[in-house]
Design goal:
The protein is globular and about 80 Å long. The protein has one domain: Aldolase class I (TIM Barrel), CATH 3.20.20. The two termini are about 40 Å apart. With about 280 residues, it is of the alpha/beta class. The strands form three sheets. The chain has a five-stranded parallel beta sheet with strand order 5-4-3-10-9. It has a three-stranded parallel beta sheet with strand order 6-7-8. The protein has twelve helices and ten strands. Helix 6 runs parallel beside helix 7 and helix 10 packs parallel to helix 12.
């Protein structure tokens, strides 16, 4: 039996870690913390999924009020998963810088998910300001994980700005539609050697498995888990899908054929005929 099939999820992660900014991470799944029915369900979902990072918005923290924010922060610490603050809701370079600096002070980390929104309807990232914002955050010592569209040139510009990972969307945030442009995503994987994390738009575990089969290095989820009928079970399903997709990519898929190919040899079997 293959050694690969005998590995537990934790062992598998150690054998094939996701490495970002020189840091090996124990999972290829990142999970958001918003929109869950309750803190208890969030905690259970995280326990099932065992993500490598939990994204959290500084603005959401502030909007909860001091007492609720303290309870939420205590819950994050209790779960023991590193926090990835994000600049959600920012529409300008100055907003991004201010929010990132505040997040570094509040959460005690140089890691930041860069969100700079250019359109309020689609929540599409601003392709003009995004590389400039990334370069400035890198200059200030942040380890930047930028949320972008699936545009090849934009993703390359973000790498040129000093980012060591890019997070293109599969579809607009919160839609759950899955990969809308497989050609663009697969082109990104073909042309870019740096780590690529699919962020936004995934709705089903099969979507996560698919992009992992294409060679993406991980996925970031929130709405698909938080708004599921059973977020706890869905979190586990996504974790399993990410692992399965990664294994399939490393195993190497067969080449599709145009005609049927027998899976069992016919030579030497009864009733075999030539011609």
């Amino acid at each position: 039996m293959s050694t690969l099939l005998q590995l537990s999820p934790s062992t598998w992660a150690n054998e094939d870690p996701l490495v970002l900014y020189g840091q090996p991470l124990p999972s290829r799944l990142m999970l958001g913390t918003a929109r869950y029915p309750s803190p208890a369900i969030l905690e259970q979902a995280v326990a099932r999924a065992q993500p490598c990072l939990l994204t959290v918005s500084l603005r959401r923290q502030g909007a909860l009020g001091p007492e609720t924010s303290q309870r939420f922060w205590a819950l994050l610490q209790k779960m023991g998963i590193p926090v990835l603050p994000n600049t959600a809701g920012c529409h300008s370079l100055q907003e991004v810088i201010t929010t990132a600096e505040m997040a570094r002070e509040v959460f005690g980390t140089d890691w930041i998910k860069l969100e700079l929104i250019g359109d309020d309807y689609t929540l599409q990232p601003d392709p003009v300001q995004l590389p400039t914002a990334a370069a400035e955050l890198v200059r200030r010592g942040f380890k930047v994980l930028p949320y972008s569209t699936d545009d090849l040139v934009l993703c390359q510009r973000l790498l040129d700005a000093g980012c060591e990972v890019v997070m293109p969307w599969a579809a607009p945030i919160g839609t759950g539609k899955g990969p809308l442009n497989p050609y663009n995503l697969r082109l990104l994987r073909e042309r870019i050697e740096a780590p690529l994390i699919v962020d936004a738009g995934l709705g089903l575990p099969s979507h996560a498995c698919q992009v992992m089969e294409w060679g993406f290095d991980g996925v970031l989820l929130n709405t698909a888990v938080a708004l599921a009928r059973d977020p706890v079970v869905m979190a586990e399903a996504f974790a399993e899908a990410v692992r399965s997709g990664r294994r399939a990519y490393l195993a190497g898929a067969m080449i599709p054929q145009e005609t049927a190919q027998p899976s069992t040899p016919v030579l030497g079997t009864p009733f075999w005929h030539q011609g």
